[in-house]
Backbone:
Protein backbone atom coordinates (compact mmCIF):
# COMPACT_ATOMS: atom_id res chain seq x y z
CA UNK A 1 0.00 0.00 0.00
CA UNK A 2 1.91 3.00 -1.27
CA UNK A 3 -0.23 5.50 0.67
CA UNK A 4 0.19 3.65 3.97
CA UNK A 5 3.92 3.16 3.41
CA UNK A 6 4.31 6.91 2.89
CA UNK A 7 2.66 7.59 6.25
CA UNK A 8 4.82 5.02 8.04
CA UNK A 9 7.96 6.33 6.31
CA UNK A 10 7.20 9.84 7.56
CA UNK A 11 6.58 8.56 11.07
CA UNK A 12 9.83 6.62 11.18
CA UNK A 13 11.80 9.73 10.24
CA UNK A 14 9.96 11.88 12.77
CA UNK A 15 10.68 9.39 15.53
CA UNK A 16 14.31 9.04 14.52
CA UNK A 17 14.81 12.81 14.35
CA UNK A 18 13.33 13.31 17.81
CA UNK A 19 14.74 10.08 19.23
CA UNK A 20 11.24 9.08 20.29
CA UNK A 21 10.93 5.31 20.84
CA UNK A 22 7.65 3.73 19.80
CA UNK A 23 6.93 0.11 20.60
CA UNK A 24 4.32 -0.34 17.87
CA UNK A 25 4.28 1.50 14.57
CA UNK A 26 0.73 1.95 13.32
CA UNK A 27 -1.40 4.36 11.36
CA UNK A 28 -3.88 6.57 13.21
CA UNK A 29 -6.72 7.51 10.88
CA UNK A 30 -9.24 10.08 12.10
CA UNK A 31 -12.92 10.48 11.24
CA UNK A 32 -14.81 13.63 12.28
CA UNK A 33 -18.42 12.69 12.98
CA UNK A 34 -21.46 13.36 15.15
CA UNK A 35 -22.63 9.72 15.21
CA UNK A 36 -26.11 10.98 15.99
CA UNK A 37 -26.64 8.05 16.11
CA UNK A 38 -23.79 5.78 14.91
CA UNK A 39 -25.18 3.75 12.02
CA UNK A 40 -24.28 1.57 9.02
CA UNK A 41 -23.02 4.58 7.05
CA UNK A 42 -20.36 5.23 9.70
CA UNK A 43 -19.55 1.51 9.82
CA UNK A 44 -19.10 1.52 6.03
CA UNK A 45 -16.62 4.40 6.24
CA UNK A 46 -14.66 2.69 9.03
CA UNK A 47 -14.46 -0.56 7.03
CA UNK A 48 -13.20 1.36 3.98
CA UNK A 49 -10.55 3.05 6.14
CA UNK A 50 -9.30 -0.32 7.41
CA UNK A 51 -9.25 -1.70 3.88
CA UNK A 52 -7.21 1.32 2.75
CA UNK A 53 -4.70 1.53 5.58
CA UNK A 54 -4.59 -1.98 7.02
CA UNK A 55 -6.32 -4.03 9.70
CA UNK A 56 -3.98 -2.73 12.43
CA UNK A 57 -5.01 0.90 11.79
CA UNK A 58 -6.25 2.78 14.82
CA UNK A 59 -9.51 4.46 13.79
CA UNK A 60 -9.98 7.60 15.88
CA UNK A 61 -13.41 9.21 15.83
CA UNK A 62 -13.50 12.89 16.80
CA UNK A 63 -17.07 13.10 18.03
CA UNK A 64 -19.12 16.28 18.21
CA UNK A 65 -20.35 16.43 21.81
CA UNK A 66 -23.85 17.01 23.16
CA UNK A 67 -24.48 19.90 20.74
CA UNK A 68 -24.45 19.25 17.00
CA UNK A 69 -23.46 21.33 14.01
CA UNK A 70 -26.95 22.32 12.92
CA UNK A 71 -27.45 24.15 16.25
CA UNK A 72 -29.40 21.47 18.07
CA UNK A 73 -29.00 18.89 20.81
CA UNK A 74 -27.69 15.41 20.09
CA UNK A 75 -30.38 12.71 20.30
CA UNK A 76 -28.58 10.99 23.17
CA UNK A 77 -25.50 11.95 25.13
CA UNK A 78 -21.89 11.82 23.92
CA UNK A 79 -20.75 8.84 26.05
CA UNK A 80 -23.51 6.58 24.74
CA UNK A 81 -22.87 7.63 21.14
CA UNK A 82 -19.14 7.09 21.66
CA UNK A 83 -19.78 3.55 22.93
CA UNK A 84 -21.91 3.02 19.82
CA UNK A 85 -19.02 4.22 17.66
CA UNK A 86 -16.76 1.58 19.21
CA UNK A 87 -19.42 -1.06 18.55
CA UNK A 88 -19.24 -0.28 14.78
CA UNK A 89 -15.44 -0.45 14.60
CA UNK A 90 -13.90 2.71 16.06
CA UNK A 91 -10.90 2.18 18.35
CA UNK A 92 -10.70 5.53 20.09
CA UNK A 93 -13.31 8.28 20.49
CA UNK A 94 -12.33 11.80 21.55
CA UNK A 95 -14.59 14.83 21.77
CA UNK A 96 -14.87 18.01 19.72
CA UNK A 97 -16.28 20.08 22.57
CA UNK A 98 -18.78 22.91 22.77
CA UNK A 99 -18.87 25.57 21.30
CA UNK A 100 -16.96 24.25 18.26
CA UNK A 101 -19.30 21.30 17.73
CA UNK A 102 -22.28 23.54 16.90
CA UNK A 103 -20.87 26.27 14.66
CA UNK A 104 -20.75 26.94 10.93
CA UNK A 105 -19.23 24.32 8.63
CA UNK A 106 -16.06 26.40 8.34
CA UNK A 107 -15.53 26.75 12.09
CA UNK A 108 -16.62 23.18 12.80
CA UNK A 109 -14.15 21.82 10.26
CA UNK A 110 -11.30 24.19 11.10
CA UNK A 111 -11.50 23.60 14.85
CA UNK A 112 -11.77 19.82 14.39
CA UNK A 113 -8.75 19.69 12.07
CA UNK A 114 -6.80 22.00 14.39
CA UNK A 115 -7.56 19.69 17.31
CA UNK A 116 -6.41 16.64 15.34
CA UNK A 117 -3.21 18.46 14.38
CA UNK A 118 -2.59 19.28 18.06
CA UNK A 119 -2.73 15.58 18.94
CA UNK A 120 0.60 15.16 17.07
CA UNK A 121 -0.01 11.59 15.99
CA UNK A 122 -2.85 11.56 13.46
CA UNK A 123 -1.75 10.41 10.00
CA UNK A 124 -4.91 10.57 7.90
CA UNK A 125 -8.27 12.35 7.92
CA UNK A 126 -11.01 10.25 6.37
CA UNK A 127 -14.47 11.46 5.40
CA UNK A 128 -17.42 10.70 3.19
CA UNK A 129 -18.39 12.96 0.32
CA UNK A 130 -20.86 12.97 -2.53
CA UNK A 131 -17.90 13.35 -4.89
CA UNK A 132 -15.83 10.44 -3.62
CA UNK A 133 -12.97 12.00 -5.62
CA UNK A 134 -10.26 13.70 -3.56
CA UNK A 135 -8.72 15.38 -6.63
CA UNK A 136 -11.97 17.14 -7.52
CA UNK A 137 -12.39 18.35 -3.95
CA UNK A 138 -8.76 19.50 -3.80
CA UNK A 139 -9.20 21.51 -7.01
CA UNK A 140 -12.18 23.35 -5.53
CA UNK A 141 -10.39 23.93 -2.21
CA UNK A 142 -7.30 25.21 -4.01
CA UNK A 143 -9.38 27.79 -5.87
CA UNK A 144 -11.23 28.89 -2.73
CA UNK A 145 -7.93 29.49 -0.94
CA UNK A 146 -6.49 31.51 -3.85
CA UNK A 147 -6.03 35.28 -3.92
CA UNK A 148 -8.08 35.34 -7.14
CA UNK A 149 -11.12 34.02 -5.28
CA UNK A 150 -10.56 36.34 -2.31
CA UNK A 151 -10.43 39.39 -4.57
CA UNK A 152 -13.40 38.31 -6.67
CA UNK A 153 -15.60 37.48 -3.68
CA UNK A 154 -14.75 40.77 -1.95
CA UNK A 155 -15.68 42.67 -5.09
CA UNK A 156 -18.92 40.73 -5.47
CA UNK A 157 -19.91 41.39 -1.85
CA UNK A 158 -19.34 45.09 -2.37
CA UNK A 159 -21.45 45.18 -5.52
CA UNK A 160 -24.20 42.88 -4.18
CA UNK A 161 -24.35 43.31 -0.38
CA UNK A 162 -27.60 41.32 -0.08
CA UNK A 163 -26.20 38.29 -1.91
CA UNK A 164 -25.25 35.45 0.44
CA UNK A 165 -21.66 34.26 0.67
CA UNK A 166 -22.76 30.76 -0.35
CA UNK A 167 -24.30 32.08 -3.57
CA UNK A 168 -21.25 34.23 -4.33
CA UNK A 169 -18.99 31.23 -3.83
CA UNK A 170 -21.13 29.00 -6.05
CA UNK A 171 -21.30 31.60 -8.83
CA UNK A 172 -17.53 32.16 -8.80
CA UNK A 173 -16.77 28.44 -8.85
CA UNK A 174 -19.17 28.04 -11.78
CA UNK A 175 -17.60 30.84 -13.80
CA UNK A 176 -13.97 30.02 -12.96
CA UNK A 177 -13.92 26.22 -12.74
CA UNK A 178 -17.08 24.69 -14.19
CA UNK A 179 -20.82 24.22 -13.61
CA UNK A 180 -20.06 20.65 -12.50
CA UNK A 181 -17.60 21.88 -9.88
CA UNK A 182 -20.15 24.45 -8.67
CA UNK A 183 -22.74 21.71 -8.25
CA UNK A 184 -20.28 19.51 -6.38
CA UNK A 185 -19.27 22.36 -4.06
CA UNK A 186 -22.91 22.91 -3.03
CA UNK A 187 -23.61 19.36 -1.82
CA UNK A 188 -23.74 19.03 2.00
CA UNK A 189 -21.02 16.45 2.60
CA UNK A 190 -18.78 17.98 -0.07
CA UNK A 191 -19.09 21.34 1.71
CA UNK A 192 -17.62 19.85 4.88
CA UNK A 193 -15.02 17.89 2.90
CA UNK A 194 -13.83 21.09 1.19
CA UNK A 195 -13.65 22.85 4.56
CA UNK A 196 -11.50 20.00 5.91
CA UNK A 197 -9.13 20.42 2.96
CA UNK A 198 -9.01 24.20 3.40
CA UNK A 199 -8.16 23.75 7.07
CA UNK A 200 -5.40 21.25 6.29
CA UNK A 201 -3.97 23.68 3.72
CA UNK A 202 -4.10 26.64 6.10
CA UNK A 203 -2.31 24.70 8.83
CA UNK A 204 0.26 23.25 6.45
CA UNK A 205 -0.71 19.95 8.02
CA UNK A 206 1.02 16.66 7.15
CA UNK A 207 -2.28 14.84 7.79
CA UNK A 208 -3.30 13.13 4.55
CA UNK A 209 -6.96 13.46 3.41
CA UNK A 210 -8.85 10.42 2.16
CA UNK A 211 -12.47 10.35 0.99
CA UNK A 212 -15.03 7.75 -0.04
CA UNK A 213 -18.32 8.26 -1.80
CA UNK A 214 -21.11 8.68 0.72
CA UNK A 215 -23.73 5.94 0.73
CA UNK A 216 -27.45 6.32 1.43
CA UNK A 217 -29.75 9.29 1.95
CA UNK A 218 -28.98 12.87 2.92
CA UNK A 219 -29.39 13.83 6.57
CA UNK A 220 -32.65 15.64 5.83
CA UNK A 221 -34.24 12.84 3.82
CA UNK A 222 -36.49 10.16 5.27
CA UNK A 223 -35.91 7.61 2.53
CA UNK A 224 -34.00 4.38 2.97
CA UNK A 225 -31.29 3.19 0.61
CA UNK A 226 -30.25 -0.45 0.53
CA UNK A 227 -28.42 -1.11 3.79
CA UNK A 228 -28.29 2.59 4.73
CA UNK A 229 -30.58 5.06 6.44
CA UNK A 230 -29.76 8.69 7.20
CA UNK A 231 -29.17 9.78 10.78
CA UNK A 232 -32.14 12.18 10.54
CA UNK A 233 -34.44 9.41 9.34
CA UNK A 234 -33.25 7.11 12.14
CA UNK A 235 -33.94 9.77 14.76
CA UNK A 236 -37.41 10.39 13.34
CA UNK A 237 -38.18 6.66 13.23
CA UNK A 238 -37.16 6.25 16.89
CA UNK A 239 -39.38 9.15 17.94
CA UNK A 240 -42.34 7.63 16.11
CA UNK A 241 -41.96 3.88 16.67
CA UNK A 242 -39.08 3.26 19.07
CA UNK A 243 -35.99 1.20 18.30
CA UNK A 244 -37.54 -1.88 16.66
CA UNK A 245 -37.79 -0.59 13.07
CA UNK A 246 -34.24 0.82 12.85
CA UNK A 247 -32.34 -2.24 14.11
CA UNK A 248 -30.98 -3.08 10.61
CA UNK A 249 -29.14 0.26 10.63
CA UNK A 250 -27.51 0.22 14.08
CA UNK A 251 -25.66 -2.44 16.07
CA UNK A 252 -27.45 -4.70 18.53
CA UNK A 253 -25.34 -3.21 21.34
CA UNK A 254 -26.36 0.34 20.52
CA UNK A 255 -30.01 -0.68 20.03
CA UNK A 256 -29.95 -1.98 23.60
CA UNK A 257 -28.38 1.28 24.85
CA UNK A 258 -31.00 3.35 23.04
CA UNK A 259 -33.86 1.23 24.34
CA UNK A 260 -32.53 1.61 27.87
CA UNK A 261 -32.19 5.39 27.44
CA UNK A 262 -35.75 5.68 26.14
CA UNK A 263 -37.16 3.65 29.02
CA UNK A 264 -35.25 5.69 31.64
CA UNK A 265 -36.16 9.04 30.07
CA UNK A 266 -32.54 9.81 29.14
CA UNK A 267 -33.40 10.29 25.45
CA UNK A 268 -34.32 11.90 23.19
CA UNK A 269 -33.00 15.32 24.15
CA UNK A 270 -35.23 18.15 22.92
CA UNK A 271 -34.38 21.85 22.96
CA UNK A 272 -38.07 22.74 23.29
CA UNK A 273 -37.92 21.48 26.89
CA UNK A 274 -35.46 24.30 27.57
CA UNK A 275 -37.75 27.05 26.25
CA UNK A 276 -38.58 28.61 29.62
CA UNK A 277 -35.04 28.69 30.97
CA UNK A 278 -33.43 29.85 27.71
CA UNK A 279 -35.93 32.54 26.75
CA UNK A 280 -36.08 33.92 30.30
CA UNK A 281 -32.29 34.15 30.45
CA UNK A 282 -32.12 35.86 27.05
CA UNK A 283 -34.70 38.44 28.12
CA UNK A 284 -32.51 39.30 31.09
CA UNK A 285 -29.40 39.52 28.89
CA UNK A 286 -31.19 41.92 26.54
CA UNK A 287 -31.72 44.38 29.37
CA UNK A 288 -27.99 44.47 30.06
CA UNK A 289 -26.35 44.47 26.65
CA UNK A 290 -26.78 44.15 22.90
CA UNK A 291 -26.90 40.55 21.68
CA UNK A 292 -24.64 41.50 18.77
CA UNK A 293 -21.62 41.07 21.08
CA UNK A 294 -22.09 37.33 20.63
CA UNK A 295 -20.79 35.32 17.71
CA UNK A 296 -22.69 35.18 14.43
CA UNK A 297 -25.26 37.78 15.56
CA UNK A 298 -25.16 41.07 13.66
CA UNK A 299 -26.99 44.24 14.70
CA UNK A 300 -30.06 43.46 12.57
CA UNK A 301 -30.43 39.93 13.94
CA UNK A 302 -29.85 41.17 17.49
CA UNK A 303 -32.72 43.66 17.10
CA UNK A 304 -35.01 40.95 15.70
CA UNK A 305 -34.11 38.60 18.55
CA UNK A 306 -34.92 41.25 21.15
CA UNK A 307 -38.31 41.93 19.55
CA UNK A 308 -39.09 38.20 19.20
CA UNK A 309 -38.41 37.62 22.90
CA UNK A 310 -41.43 39.78 23.72
CA UNK A 311 -43.72 37.55 21.65
CA UNK A 312 -42.36 34.01 21.84
CA UNK A 313 -43.37 31.49 24.50
CA UNK A 314 -41.20 28.67 23.17
CA UNK A 315 -38.09 28.17 21.06
CA UNK A 316 -39.94 27.01 17.95
CA UNK A 317 -41.98 30.21 17.88
CA UNK A 318 -38.91 32.30 18.65
CA UNK A 319 -37.01 30.80 15.68
CA UNK A 320 -40.02 31.23 13.35
CA UNK A 321 -40.17 34.94 14.20
CA UNK A 322 -36.52 35.31 13.16
CA UNK A 323 -36.71 33.48 9.84
CA UNK A 324 -35.48 35.35 6.77
CA UNK A 325 -34.61 34.38 3.21
CA UNK A 326 -30.87 34.71 3.78
CA UNK A 327 -30.79 32.86 7.14
CA UNK A 328 -31.14 29.13 7.66
CA UNK A 329 -32.83 27.67 10.71
CA UNK A 330 -29.47 26.15 11.70
CA UNK A 331 -27.92 29.65 11.70
CA UNK A 332 -30.69 30.93 13.96
CA UNK A 333 -30.43 28.00 16.34
CA UNK A 334 -26.67 28.47 16.60
CA UNK A 335 -27.24 32.19 17.28
CA UNK A 336 -29.64 31.28 20.09
CA UNK A 337 -27.07 28.96 21.68
CA UNK A 338 -24.25 31.48 21.27
CA UNK A 339 -26.29 34.20 22.98
CA UNK A 340 -27.48 31.96 25.80
CA UNK A 341 -23.99 30.66 26.62
CA UNK A 342 -22.21 33.95 25.92
CA UNK A 343 -20.09 32.59 23.06
CA UNK A 344 -18.02 35.34 21.43
CA UNK A 345 -15.96 35.50 18.26
CA UNK A 346 -12.75 34.93 20.22
CA UNK A 347 -14.23 31.75 21.74
CA UNK A 348 -14.77 30.08 18.36
CA UNK A 349 -11.76 31.52 16.52
CA UNK A 350 -9.27 30.33 19.12
CA UNK A 351 -7.97 26.78 18.84
CA UNK A 352 -9.64 24.09 20.98
CA UNK A 353 -7.89 24.03 24.35
CA UNK A 354 -8.71 20.44 25.30
CA UNK A 355 -10.43 17.24 24.29
CA UNK A 356 -12.01 14.41 26.25
CA UNK A 357 -11.68 10.65 26.10
CA UNK A 358 -15.19 9.29 25.49
CA UNK A 359 -14.58 5.65 24.55
CA UNK A 360 -11.85 3.20 23.60
CA UNK A 361 -10.96 -0.42 23.02
CA UNK A 362 -7.60 -2.12 23.60
CA UNK A 363 -6.02 -0.81 20.38
CA UNK A 364 -7.34 2.64 21.14
CA UNK A 365 -5.79 2.58 24.62
CA UNK A 366 -2.37 1.93 23.11
CA UNK A 367 -2.80 4.85 20.71
CA UNK A 368 -4.08 7.05 23.53
CA UNK A 369 -0.87 6.50 25.51
CA UNK A 370 1.15 7.83 22.60
CA UNK A 371 -1.18 10.76 21.96
CA UNK A 372 -1.18 11.81 25.62
CA UNK A 373 2.63 11.86 25.60
CA UNK A 374 2.91 14.07 22.51
CA UNK A 375 -0.31 16.10 22.32
CA UNK A 376 -0.01 19.85 22.81
CA UNK A 377 -3.43 19.98 24.51
CA UNK A 378 -4.80 18.01 27.48
CA UNK A 379 -6.84 14.88 26.87
CA UNK A 380 -9.24 14.69 29.82
CA UNK A 381 -10.44 11.28 30.93
CA UNK A 382 -13.42 12.43 33.02
CA UNK A 383 -15.42 15.64 33.56
CA UNK A 384 -13.99 16.13 37.06
CA UNK A 385 -10.47 16.50 35.60
CA UNK A 386 -11.18 20.23 35.25
CA UNK A 387 -10.29 20.56 38.93
CA UNK A 388 -6.68 19.70 38.11
CA UNK A 389 -6.23 22.17 35.23
CA UNK A 390 -3.95 25.06 36.15
CA UNK A 391 -3.96 27.02 32.88
CA UNK A 392 -6.63 29.74 33.17
CA UNK A 393 -7.64 29.74 29.48
CA UNK A 394 -7.98 25.97 29.34
CA UNK A 395 -9.97 25.94 32.57
CA UNK A 396 -12.30 28.62 31.18
CA UNK A 397 -12.85 26.57 28.01
CA UNK A 398 -13.66 23.40 29.99
CA UNK A 399 -16.03 25.29 32.30
CA UNK A 400 -17.92 26.74 29.30
CA UNK A 401 -18.30 23.25 27.82
CA UNK A 402 -19.38 21.84 31.20
CA UNK A 403 -21.99 24.60 31.57
CA UNK A 404 -23.44 23.67 28.19
CA UNK A 405 -23.43 19.97 29.07
CA UNK A 406 -25.24 20.61 32.37
CA UNK A 407 -28.05 22.32 30.45
CA UNK A 408 -28.20 19.36 28.04
CA UNK A 409 -29.28 17.05 30.87
CA UNK A 410 -32.29 19.27 31.60
CA UNK A 411 -33.55 18.67 28.04
CA UNK A 412 -34.21 14.93 28.34
CA UNK A 413 -37.65 13.51 29.27
CA UNK A 414 -36.47 12.86 32.84
CA UNK A 415 -34.24 15.87 33.65
CA UNK A 416 -30.99 15.02 35.42
CA UNK A 417 -29.16 16.98 38.15
CA UNK A 418 -25.89 18.75 37.34
CA UNK A 419 -23.97 16.27 39.50
CA UNK A 420 -24.87 13.64 36.88
CA UNK A 421 -22.29 15.30 34.61
CA UNK A 422 -19.46 14.40 36.98
CA UNK A 423 -20.45 10.76 37.28
CA UNK A 424 -19.73 9.81 33.68
CA UNK A 425 -16.75 7.62 32.80
CA UNK A 426 -15.40 6.77 29.34
CA UNK A 427 -16.63 3.51 27.83
CA UNK A 428 -13.72 1.04 27.69
CA UNK A 429 -14.19 -2.15 25.66
CA UNK A 430 -11.72 -4.84 26.69
Residues:
Amino acid sequence: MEYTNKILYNKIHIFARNILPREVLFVIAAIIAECNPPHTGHAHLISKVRRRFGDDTCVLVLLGGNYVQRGDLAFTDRYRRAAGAVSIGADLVLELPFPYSCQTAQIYATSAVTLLQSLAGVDALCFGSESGNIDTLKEIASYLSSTDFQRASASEREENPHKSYAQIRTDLIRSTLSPVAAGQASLPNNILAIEYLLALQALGSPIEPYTIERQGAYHSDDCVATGFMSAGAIRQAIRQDGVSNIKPYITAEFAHVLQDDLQKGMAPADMERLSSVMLTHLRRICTEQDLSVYFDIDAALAAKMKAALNKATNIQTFISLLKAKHMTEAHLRRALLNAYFGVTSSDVHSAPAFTRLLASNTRGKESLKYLKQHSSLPILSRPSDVRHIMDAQTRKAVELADFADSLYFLSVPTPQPVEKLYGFRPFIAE
Summary: The chain is about 50% helix and 10% strand. The radius of gyration is 21 Å. The CA atoms of residues 69 and 103 lie 6 Å apart.
